[in-house]
Structure formats: structure tokens, C-alpha cells
């Protein structure tokens, strides 16, 4: 399939880490040679050197014709490569690895179908501002544009879904390009970057050691906010009667959870989060009203609806959060802290924009506020709403298993630092609603793009990024799980301690919920009663599997699965008619959340 | 299949009304919607609505392959309409200036600038003041039956005849948008066969820098990026 012969490796056996072989250009090895096991000889080896320089520990990918030189160079590297079953899995795993580590994750794919299979994962990372570096093989540059075998215009395809992408056309520069792409992915507002690597470039000879990874100077964001902007925002907060903090995913990415917690506690300001912001504030804290939005808590949405000064940090005001813009926080002046100036007044007008790093901005605001706002009455009000609209569910013994109960059991059986990943659908909402998150980077999910199938590959990425004593639980749905179930083979091969809890209602449940509410219960293509038996499938893959139908089996299965030191799957057959509430109708007012179907 | 029973429950009244406890939406206090479609809080005294206006945005970009498609792709996928787009090299090696005319309400124009500023090859972006110097070039091919009259109109608009044959005459005109529109109108009487317009290109007047932070071109120095300073 790939006609040019790969470059011959001089040391064809593993002959020791210090073996600096190769008759080519011995004079080039002077400075960096003392620590580097092998000198850079090709574009591919300089790419790998750039990754090593950037501190990359793991990469996820799938082999293929045009990426073979890169993989060949990886052979000599200490970077752990995890072969995934599908490139989409590689992108999601890299994404999740990055989320947990708070640094860009790396994925690799070959040209053409390999690159296009990455697209969903890259788009997902882009919507959630997750740093991901994607390296794609490309046909030799002389053949680019000729519709060659496995050729796709990867740059063209990925331009709208990357922070930036690079076509590497020079073997001497390719290492620096990859370093720059890595740095850019993690800088400021993180996001995915991609380097397309033609095979002749990665095979081409070079002795150029890549320099330190530097971001392009045209992209350096402002991290320290203007004094005037901070002062204006501080005045607004001082005068607030009903201030509310809205913490988005940016708080976690900026590593500013501590600053946000300190700020809220110092001034007694209640907190809601967005869904990506889950974990930025402990949900068991009295000030925390959990997350707002379409399926957020009633009390969070009441608070958003009635606040007079909304201090929004690191959020882009997605429509799943705001509902209808005209009814979103209708009485609030908005203080918007964000590192990306383009987010200011994009969806919701910011009366007090503060552009900068979230931690810096909150610290600056905190010292600028002279008089504490009087929030006692407002906090009381928020507590009243907590009582009025509790997050609860019925658990009659004779009814089928409730998904919320399963989530609570899993939460109880695991530590506070356990990492939860999820697919997309009803199960994702139940996991977000009924798991009590207290730490940043413990909730790994597909938010903006809503990618079904995100759960299992992201659990693999999270497992490799997590510390050994952190449990990793993937709460998945039957439909979502089936979309990337092949990655179970990877979890088995790599002996990853992951627990997959499938909330199986034999439906593509969120669609069924909407069909019930808005399409007269016409369940077109939403029935998934053709799903395989996941416990048996798990065993077929070499994992452990359980099937649970009743309440009294839940605790034992959960305990066994968590204890099992390897991938395990529990197929929870839940009430197929259970729906997710509260619910704000799409484009509706947040304060008019429905608590049952007849309120929609 | 074990789920047959649940599949049967399709009719409306059999779908159980699962849900949470709490007052009905209508029983809760609701402030009325006080933001407009652009998310701007409506001040009772000042209606914060914005009507579209025409803006000229100038961007200094690194002259790398694909920069034009990155810029135009970004603008179009965010549903902003480009009226015209011109691009060409500057005095600094590796820099190009891109001039874009857009018609959008103010928040949209602001977004275009900020989104452009985020692109890696974009060094600096700015909107030009009304007193900018701007011009457009147009080529017009008209029927050649009345060469004298065509020549007269061309003269009136300070144009230039580029080609005159027995059947067609092609003229070149430059000027601001209004002048070009007027000239095109004037040439209609002869029967216009083809038109090629370049779109506006513009520079700031006098000593002002066209984009924020731009150094005088004669220095040959690259411009300091200023895109993240508002």
C-alpha cells in the first residue's frame, strides 16, 4: 500500500537506551546528545523529539501507511503509545487524558480515513476548549492534490474545528512546528491543533533538533486584566443584592478552582456551575447550587433567573445553559471574566468584561472589592429554592431499577477523587445530576458537541492520566456505549482498571424523551431493544461483566466491579420510561423548568 | 424480547408522568425577559437594538498558504456576510494586508474583529474610521456601437480605455464605492456586457496606523501584534 520504503533503522534491535547509532552526520549530535538516546535523523524522529521535549508521556492512535514513519520513530521513544481500535477513540482518549492532566493530549492517525475518523474527536475537543494535538499522516507532498490513495485535504477538513492547523512541508522545520502546535493547544484558551505530516517530510533526512516548544507571538493572550475593568466590576459586585457566580469549564482549565472557591466564600456569593464547570466548586457546599441549564437543578435555574449581578467566569454562555437569550438572567448585570476576548458579548452582553486568566482576575477582583455585598437574604432565598425543588426520584421496590439510584450507589462506592466519564444522553444527565462532584477534573464528558460514544475511550484516556488510587468510572448509555464499544478491547489489552456502568433502557433515551414530549410519543428509530447483552459482550472482549435488574443486586455488583482490577462492565437494566427532569424546553426561560412531562 | 411490554406503552395516556416535586412553572415568580436577541440587557430608557452598518475591517496577516481561506471560512461559518475582500502584500516581507467590507450590527462587527484576531496568521485587526482613504477598481466591458459617447462617459469618471474593438469597449475606473456605482449606472445606456470589481481596499488617513500597533512600513520591521489588547 505504501510504495516508498521506510527509512532503515540502524539499530534494528533494542540495543540499549544510550546507543547513539547511525553513520549519518555524527557532527550534529554535539549539544543535546548527552541526554538523548538517539539523534534526530529524519523528520519523523524530530517530531518525536519535539513531543519528548514537551513532556508528552502518552499518545493514542492507529497505525497506517502515511503515518508509518512517525510510528517507526516512536519505536525508539519512551512515550507510551496506546493503539486504539478506532481513531475517534484515539481523539477522545487524548482529549480526556488532557482534561485530567490539564495539558494537551496527543493523538495520531494516518492520512485519509485515519484523519477523517479523528474529526469527531477534534470537533468535540474544539467545542469544549480541550487542548489536543493531532498528528496526521499525509501522502507525499508531490502527490498532494492528485487524489492519491488515502488522500484527504486534512487541513481543509479540520480548519473550522481546530485552533490552528499546520501543513508541515519541511523536514528541518517539522519538529519546531509540532512543538509550536503542542504549545498553542495548551496556551490561553486551550483547543485542538493539528499537524499534517506528508510522508516524504517525515521520511526526509534532517539533523535539526527541535527547539523548546514556543507559541506563535501572534496568539499570546492577555492574562492580567486591566485595572479599570477590574475596578468597574468590583463596584458592580459591591452594590449587588443578589450576586451569583457562574463557574464554567474555563475555571478548571485555568486551574482557578481555588481562587473561585475563596472568592465565593469571602463574599458569601452563591455559586452555580455550567456542566463543563462541574467540580470547580464542591457540590456539597452550602453555597453551591449545582449546575444550571437545560437539565440543571431547579434551584440553580431559579438563582440564574433572579440574580442581579452575575459573575460569569470562563463560560461561553452556550444555549444549553442560557435557554432563550431574552429570558436569561433577565435582571442581571453581567461581569464576564474570560481569557478569550471573542467570548465577551458573543452570546450574552457583558456589562463588565474582564479579560484575563481566571485566577488572576478573581484575585484582582477580590482585593479591589472594598465593601462586602450584603447577601444574607439572597442566600436564604437560594436555600429555600433548594428545599422547594429538591433533586429526588421515586424508588418503589416493585418498579424497574431507577438510574439515579445506580449513580448514587456508584458515587457512594467510590472516593471523592474518582473520575467519572460519560457518553451523551439521559445517562450523562443523571450522572451529572446525582453524582456529587467535589474536585476539579473529575467530570469528563462531551458537552458542547454532545458526542455519543465519548464515554469509553475517554475513560481509557482518563485512566492513563489519573493517579493509581483514583477510580475511573464510565457512566454510559446503551446507545452511546455501542458507538465505541470496540475500545473495550484496548482496555483489556492495556489492563486498565475501568468500571463501565451502562444505564441500559433499551432506548436512545434522550431522543425518546423528546419524542414523548414533542412528537406525540412516536418513537421513530429510538428503540434499542436490539442491543447486545453487554455483560456477555464484555466477557467476550476479555473484561468482566455483570447484568443487574433489581435494586438488591446493585450494591454487590458495584462493589465487585470497583474491586476488580481491570475493565468491568455492569449492564444495569433500568426503568425504560424514566426521564430526565428538571428540563428547560429548548430556547425557553430557565426559570420555567419543567419538573415533569405535563409541565412542558 | 424482554422489552416488548414497555414498547407497547406508546399511547399518550399510558406514558407515566414521572418527575420531581416543586411548584408548577406558573406558580413561580418570573422576571420578564429583559434581554434582546443579542443578549443585551434592555435599559428601559435606551432600547439597546443595533441596526446593521457597513464597516471596513483591515487585517494585517502573515502571508502563509491558506490564510485567505482561513479568514473567509471563519467569517462565513459564523454567518457574517462579506461584501468584499481584497488582499495583497505590504512593505514588510511576509505580511499581507486584507481589507474586508462587511454589513452587520455592531456586536457582529465586534465579533468579526475578535474572531479574526484569534487566527494564528492574523497579526493585527482594526476597523477603519470614516475618514479612511478607500478605493475600488472596476473593469467594464460595454457594447462598442457608440465609441464617442463611451469615451465621454469614461472621461467624466476619470477612467481609462483599456481595449476598444469593433464590438466591445473595455474601460477601467477607480474610486470609492459610490463613484463606481454611479459610473456603472451611467454605462448601462451602452449595454454592459461584463463587469469585474475588486472590492474596496483602504488605508487609514494621515499618520494613523491602519491596524493597531502597525509600524510605519518604511521601517521594514514586522508589526508588533496587538490583537489581544482591546
Task: Give an overview in words.
The complex is a heterodimer of chains A (600) and B (230). Chain A has 600 residues and is an alpha/beta fold. Chain A is built from 22 helices and 18 strands. Chain A has helices at residues 43-53, 68-74, 87-101, 113-127, 154-158, 174-186, 199-203, 227-238, 249-253, 257-267, 298-306, 319-322, 358-368, 376-388, 403-413, 426-434, 455-465, 478-483, 488-493, 509-518, 534-541, 551-563, and strands at residues 58-61, 80-83, 105-109, 132-138, 164-167, 192-198, 243-247, 271-273, 288-291, 309-313, 333-338, 352-355, 419-422, 443-444, 472-477, 498-504, 544-548, 568-573. Chain A has a six-stranded parallel sheet, with helices on both faces. Chain A is globular and about 70 Å long. The model of chain A is unreliable at 1-33 (pLDDT under 50). Among the domains of chain B are: 53-127, ACT domain (Alpha-Beta Plaits), CATH 3.30.70.260; 133-202, Alpha-Beta Plaits (2-Layer Sandwich). Chain B has five helices and nine strands; from the N terminus they run αβαββαββαββαββ. Chain B has helices at 4-8, 67-77, 106-118, 147-156, 177-187, and strands at residues 53-62, 82-89, 95-104, 122-127, 133-143, 160-164, 168-175, 192-197, 201-203. In chain B, strands 5, 6, 7, 8 and 9 form a five-stranded antiparallel sheet that branches. Chain B is extended, with a radius of gyration of 27 Å. The interface between A and B is large, with 74 and 60 residues.
Secondary structure layout plus pairing:
The complex is a heterodimer of chains A (600) and B (230).
Chain A: H1 43-53, E1 58-61, H2 68-74, E2 80-83, H3 87-101, E3 105-109, H4 113-127, E4 132-138, H5 154-158, E5 164-167, H6 174-186, E6 192-198, H7 199-203, H8 227-238, E7 243-247, H9 249-253, H10 257-267, E8 271-273, E9 288-291, H11 298-306, E10 309-313, H12 319-322, E11 333-338, E12 352-355, H13 358-368, H14 376-388, H15 403-413, E13 419-422, H16 426-434, E14 443-444, H17 455-465, E15 472-477, H18 478-483, H19 488-493, E16 498-504, H20 509-518, H21 534-541, E17 544-548, H22 551-563, E18 568-573
Parallel strand pairs in A: 1-2, 1-3, 3-4, 4-6, 5-6, 7-8, 7-10, 8-9, 10-11, 11-12, 13-14, 13-15, 15-16, 16-18, 17-18
Helix pairs in contact in A: 1-2, 1-6, 3-4, 3-17, 8-13, 10-13, 11-14, 15-16, 15-22
Chain B: H1 4-8, E1 53-62, H2 67-77, E2 82-89, E3 95-104, H3 106-118, E4 122-127, E5 133-143, H4 147-156, E6 160-164, E7 168-175, H5 177-187, E8 192-197, E9 201-203
Amino acid at each position: 500500500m505504501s510504495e516508498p520504503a521506510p527509512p532503515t533503522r540502524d539499530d534494528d534491535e533494542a540495543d540499549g537506551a544510550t546507543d547513539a547509532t547511525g553513520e549519518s552526520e555524527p557532527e550534529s549530535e554535539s549539544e543535546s546528545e548527552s541526554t538523548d538516546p538517539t539523534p534526530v535523523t529524519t523528520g519523523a524522529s524530530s517530531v518525536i523529539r519535539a513531543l519528548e521535549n514537551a513532556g508528552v508521556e502518552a499518545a493514542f492512535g492507529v497505525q497506517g501507511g502515511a503515518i508509518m514513519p512517525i510510528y517507526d520513530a516512536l519505536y525508539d521513544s519512551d512515550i507510551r503509545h496506546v493503539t486504539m481500535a478506532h481513531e475517534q477513540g484515539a481523539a477522545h482518549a487524548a482529549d480526556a487524558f488532557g482534561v485530567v492532566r490539564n495539558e494537551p493530549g496527543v493523538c495520531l492517525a494516518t492520512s485519509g480515513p485515519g484523519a477523517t475518523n479523528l474529526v469527531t474527536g477534534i470537533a468535540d475537543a474544539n467545542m469544549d476548549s480541550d487542548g489536543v494535538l493531532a498528528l496526521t499522516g499525509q501522502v507525499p507532498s508531490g502527490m498532494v492534490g492528485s487524489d492519491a490513495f488515502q488522500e484527504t485535504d486534512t487541513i481543509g477538513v479540520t480548519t473550522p474545528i481546530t485552533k490552528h492547523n499546520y501543513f508541515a512541508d519541511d523536514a528541518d522545520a517539522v519538529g519546531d512546528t509540532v512543538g509550536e502546535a503542542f504549545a498553542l493547544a495548551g496556551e490561553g484558551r486551550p483547543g485542538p491543533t493539528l499537524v499534517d505530516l506528508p510522508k516524504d517530510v517525515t521520511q526526509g533526512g534532517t539533523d535539526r533538533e527541535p527547539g523548546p516548544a514556543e507559541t506563535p507571538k501572534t496568539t499570546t493572550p492577555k492574562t492580567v486584566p486591566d485595572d479599570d475593568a477590574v475596578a468597574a466590576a468590583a463596584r458592580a459586585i459591591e452594590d449587588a443584592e443578589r450576586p451569583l457566580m457562574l463557574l464554567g469549564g474555563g475555571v478548571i482549565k485555568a486551574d482557578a478552582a481555588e481562587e473561585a472557591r475563596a472568592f465565593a466564600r469571602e463574599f458569601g456569593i452563591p455559586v452555580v456551575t455550567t456542566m463543563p464547570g462541574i467540580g470547580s466548586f464542591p457540590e456539597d457546599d452550602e453555597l453551591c447550587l449545582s449546575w444550571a441549564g437545560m437539565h440543571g437543578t431547579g434551584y440553580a435555574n431559579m438563582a440564574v433567573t433572579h440574580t442581579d449581578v452575575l459573575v460569569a467566569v470562563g463560560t461561553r454562555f452556550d444555549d444549553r445553559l442560557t435557554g432563550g437569550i431574552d429570558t436569561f438572567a433577565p435582571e442581571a448585570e453581567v461581569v464576564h471574566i474570560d481569557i478569550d476576548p471573542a467570548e465577551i458579548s458573543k452570546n450574552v452582553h457583558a456589562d463588565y468584561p474582564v479579560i484575563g486568566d481566571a485566577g488572576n482576575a478573581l484575585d484582582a477582583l477580590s482585593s479591589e472589592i472594598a465593601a462586602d455585598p450584603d447577601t444574607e437574604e439572597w442566600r436564604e432565598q437560594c436555600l429555600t429554592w433548594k428545599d422547594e425543588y429538591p433533586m429526588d426520584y421515586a424508588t418503589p421496590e416493585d418498579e424497574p431499577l431507577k438510574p439515579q439510584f445506580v449513580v448514587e450507589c456508584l458515587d457512594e462506592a467510590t472516593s471523592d477523587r474518582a473520575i467519572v466519564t460519560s457518553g451523551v444522553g439521559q445517562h450523562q444527565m443523571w450522572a451529572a445530576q446525582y453524582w456529587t462532584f467535589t474536585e476539579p477534573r473529575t467530570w469528563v464528558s462531551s458537552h458542547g458537541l454532545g458526542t455519543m460514544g465519548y464515554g469509553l475511550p475517554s475513560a481509557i484516556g482518563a485512566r492513563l492520566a489519573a493517579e493509581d488510587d483514583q477510580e475511573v468510572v464510565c457512566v454510559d448509555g446503551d446507545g452511546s456505549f455501542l458507538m465505541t464499544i470496540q475500545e473495550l478491547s484496548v482496555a483489556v489489552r492495556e489492563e486498565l482498571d475501568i468500571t463501565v456502568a451502562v444505564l441500559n433502557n433499551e432506548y436512545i433515551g434522550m431522543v425518546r424523551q423528546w419524542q414523548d414530549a414533542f412528537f406525540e410519543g412516536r418513537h421513530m428509530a429510538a428503540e434499542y431493544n436490539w442491543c447486545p447483552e453487554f455483560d456477555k459482550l464484555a466477557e467476550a472482549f476479555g473484561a468482566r461483566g455483570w447484568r443487574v435488574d433489581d435494586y438488591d443486586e446493585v450494591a454487590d455488583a458495584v462493589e465487585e466491579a470497583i474491586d476488580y482490577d481491570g475493565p468491568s462492565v455492569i449492564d444495569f437494566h433500568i426503568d425504560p420510561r424514566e426521564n430526565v427532569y428538571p428540563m428547560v424546553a429548548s430556547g425557553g426561560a430557565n426559570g420555567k423548568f419543567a419538573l415533569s412531562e405535563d409541565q412542558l | 424480547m424482554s422489552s416488548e411490554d414497555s414498547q407497547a406503552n406508546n399511547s399518550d395516556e399510558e406514558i407515566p408522568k414521572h418527575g420531581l416535586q416543586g411548584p408548577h412553572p406558573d406558580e413561580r415568580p418570573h422576571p420578564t425577559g429583559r434581554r434582546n436577541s443579542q443578549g443585551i440587557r434592555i435599559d428601559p430608557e435606551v432600547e439597546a437594538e443595533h441596526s446593521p452598518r457597513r464597516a471596513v475591517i483591515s487585517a494585517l496577516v502573515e502571508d502563509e498558504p491558506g490564510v485567505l481561506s482561513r479568514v473567509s471560512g471563519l467569517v462565513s461559518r459564523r454567518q457574517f456576510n462579506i461584501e468584499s475582500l481584497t488582499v495583497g502584500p505590504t512593505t514588510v516581507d511576509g505580511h499581507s494586508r486584507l481589507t474586508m467590507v462587511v454589513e452587520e450590527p455592531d456586536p457582529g462587527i465586534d465579533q468579526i474583529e475578535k474572531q479574526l484576531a484569534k487566527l494564528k496568521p492574523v497579526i493585527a485587526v482594526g476597523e477603519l474610521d470614516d475618514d479612511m482613504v478607500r478605493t475600488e477598481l472596476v473593469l467594464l466591458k460595454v457594447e462598442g456601437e457608440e465609441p464617442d459617447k463611451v469615451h465621454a462617459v469614461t472621461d467624466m469618471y476619470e477612467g481609462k480605455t483599456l481595449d476598444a474593438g469593433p464590438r466591445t469597449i473595455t474601460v477601467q475606473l477607480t474610486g470609492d464605492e459610490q463613484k463606481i456605482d454611479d459610473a456603472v449606472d451611467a454605462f448601462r445606456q451602452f449595454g454592459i456586457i461584463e463587469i469585474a470589481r475588486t472590492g474596496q481596499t483602504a488605508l487609514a488617513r494621515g499618520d494613523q496606523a491602519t491596524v493597531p500597533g502597525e509600524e510605519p512600513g518604511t521601517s521594514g520591521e514586522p508589526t508588533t501584534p496587538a490583537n489581544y489588547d482591546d
